[in-house]
Amino acid sequence: SFPSPLAAGVGAAIFYVFTPFTQIHIWNRFLYTLMFSLPLLPASLGFFAAGLSRSQFRVAILAAMPSLLFSPGFGSPAVILTLWTLIGSYSLYFLLTHSRQARFVVAYTLLFLVTWAIFNWWWLGPLLVVGSPFSDASTQANLSVLTSMSRDYTLPYLVRLVAVGNWPWFTWIVPTVVLFVILANFHHLQIKFLTLLGLLGLSLAKGS
Question: Is the pTM for the entire model greater than 0.90?
Answer without folding.
Answer: no
